[in-house]
Design goal:
The structure is a single chain. Strand 17, helix 15 and strand 18 form a beta-alpha-beta unit. The chain is globular. Helix 4 packs across helix 11. It has 17 helices and 21 strands. The relative contact order is 0.08. It has 498 residues and is an alpha/beta fold. The chain folds into 3 domains: 88 residues, Udp-n-acetylmuramoylalanyl-d-glutamate--2,6- Diaminopimelate Ligase, Chain: A, domain 1, CATH 3.40.1390; 217 residues, UDP-N-acetylmuramoyl-L-alanine:D-glutamate ligase, CATH 3.40.1190.10; 175 residues, Alpha-Beta Complex (Protein-Tyrosine Phosphatase, Chain A), CATH 3.90.190.20.
């Protein structure tokens, strides 16, 4: 078993506490096991120091915290930053696994999950950690897990004989130092939009959090940046290693002769040392940009361009990203994770040319950036024929108040809308309302299987609901009751009647 000194060489005092051996790492007092090293993390709502007693009762051997405790009656290490200490300890506990892999961190407002998922199909022997996997395995967060989980999964990749490890680096995960201690071979920036301002407060703080990933790059690392994003130059300036720019119309890696269709995209990808034909089996201009990020990363890591193009030709998108269902009534349903203004704009712009009518079922998260709610409503009103506003993880907020904030944006653009707070009912109504040639977009939840409400999590899956409606699901799952209530369609210009 490692000692405290071995896990925290930069923080631990060279005394009796440093010689204590520990069996594991814990940051949640409810999950402490005998022999653990417990980290008292200071959060936005709770202070881990208040749970030291519970951690000790459960068998914690040593406690690490930021508060100075006079003559603590238990082994205690005081550090200036408990989160950074946890991250360094996690990397050491698992044998610094990211030094044994080509580790790639992907950050940006949108596209992280798709880029990481595609890297797993393009790079040889590449393990991936995406938002989808985080939910499937019940990890400690939404996107980037706490450092012990991140390092454990990297260690499992090493044990499985993997050569690369790609993961999503969220702004919150970076701000909370969950990625500290990770050795990066490459960092990817997909672009910057509006999100998580409830946490970061300002766009500058949001940007600075994402820049932390590029500051971690060693001199022999590679920074891959979206050349078409106005913040790209900031990331390039931060990168100490090799710099690679990608973009549809400009960059070191770019697309030429792009043709977009309802089912896919086709283009020549050009790099400094050659070109290759790419045929993507999934549509959307934003997905072309995501694919180019993958091309630039794999190419910079030494994968031949023809091999990259061939693997992209058989690649798939992550669950809940542009997942399409043909409906018996001749309409098409699309499930996508788009949950912020930029993501909604991208997918609506891609769907609009192929839809007779475009109906959108969506909502806005509770306990999150309130300023983006009317922005999302306005974007849907501009590009869709009907905004069907529903619940999307309201958490402790009043779902109707959230919906009314979204409606403000719809009204400002003169759009047609309906409020149905029961998400399952909203989905069913939209699918029944659609006719031949129509497209129904179910936005916001994507791969998610639960709705987060004031009382906890209840089952809720757009994928399951649409699969059942399209006749593709073989068995019913129990379905929770959602916060209900509906309003009649508000139709100022009769567009929804066509």
């Amino acid at each position: 078993m490692p000692t405290v000194d071995e896990l925290l060489p930069s923080f631990s005092p060279r005394c009796a506490v440093g010689a204590i051996e520990v069996r594991g790492l814990a940051w949640d007092s409810r999950l402490v096991r005998p022999g653990d090293l417990f980290f008292a993390l200071v959060g936005g709502r709770v202070d881990g120091h208040a749970f030291i007693g519970e951690a000790l009762t459960r068998g914690a051997r040593v406690v690490v915290g930021e508060r100075r405790l006079a003559e603590a009656p238990f082994p205690y290490v005081c550090v200036p930053d408990a989160r950074a200490a946890l991250a360094h300890a996690a990397a050491a506990f698992y044998g610094h696994p990211t030094t044994k892999l080509r580790t790639i961190g992907v950050t940006g407002t949108n596209g992280k999950t798709t880029v990481v998922h595609l890297l797993g199909q393009v790079l040889p022997a590449c393990a991936t950690l995406t938002t989808v996997r985080v939910e499937r395995e019940g990890l400690s967060c939404v996107t980037t897990p706490e450092a012990p989980d991140l390092q454990r999964l990297a260690a499992e990749a090493v044990a499985e004989g993997k050569e690369a490890f790609a993961f999503e680096a969220s702004s919150i995960g970076l701000a909370q130092r969950r990625v500290v201690g990770t050795h990066l071979a490459a960092a990817v920036f997909t672009g910057l939009g509006r999100d998580h301002l409830d946490f970061h407060r300002t766009t500058d703080a949001y940007l600075d959090a994402k820049l932390r990933l590029f500051r971690m790059l060693p001199p022999d690392g590679i920074g891959i940046v979206n050349a078409e994003d106005r913040s790209g130059g900031r990331f390039l300036a931060t990168c100490r290693g090799k710099r690679v720019r990608y973009g549809i119309d400009r960059g070191d890696v770019r697309a030429r002769g792009l043709r977009l269709g309802a089912a896919g995209a086709e283009f020549m990808v050009e790099a400094p040392d050659g070109a290759a034909h790419v045929r993507l089996p999934f549509p959307g201009r934003h997905n072309v940009a995501n694919a180019l990020a993958v091309v630039a990363t794999a190419w910079a890591l030494g994968v031949p361009l023809p091999d990259i193009a061939a693997r992209l030709g058989t690649a798939t998108l992550p669950p809940g990203r542009w997942t399409r269902f043909p409906l018996p009534n001749g309409a098409m349903a699309v499930v996508d994770y788009a949950h912020n203004p930029q993501a909604l704009l991208e997918i609506l712009s891609a769907l609009r040319p192929h839809a007779r009518r475009l109906l959108v079922v969506f909502g806005a998260n509770g306990e999150a950036d309130q300023g983006k709610r009317p922005l999302m409503g306005g974007i849907v009103a501009q590009h869709a024929d009907l905004a069907l506003i529903t619940s999307d993880n309201p958490k402790g907020e009043d779902p109707r108040a959230i919906a009314e904030a979204v409606v403000q944006g719809v009204r400002a653009m003169g759009g047609s809308y309906r409020i149905e707070l029961d998400r399952a009912q909203a989905v069913r109504w939209a699918l029944e309302e659609a006719g031949r040639g129509d497209v129904v977009l179910l936005a916001g939840k994507g791969h998610e299987r639960y709705q987060l409400v004031a009382d906890g999590a209840i089952p809720c899956s757009d994928l399951e609901l649409v699969a059942a409606a399209s006749g593709l699901r073989e068995r019913e799952e129990p379905r929770g009751h959602f916060l209900g209530g509906s309003d009649a369609v508000h139709d100022p210009d009769a567009r929804v009647r066509g």
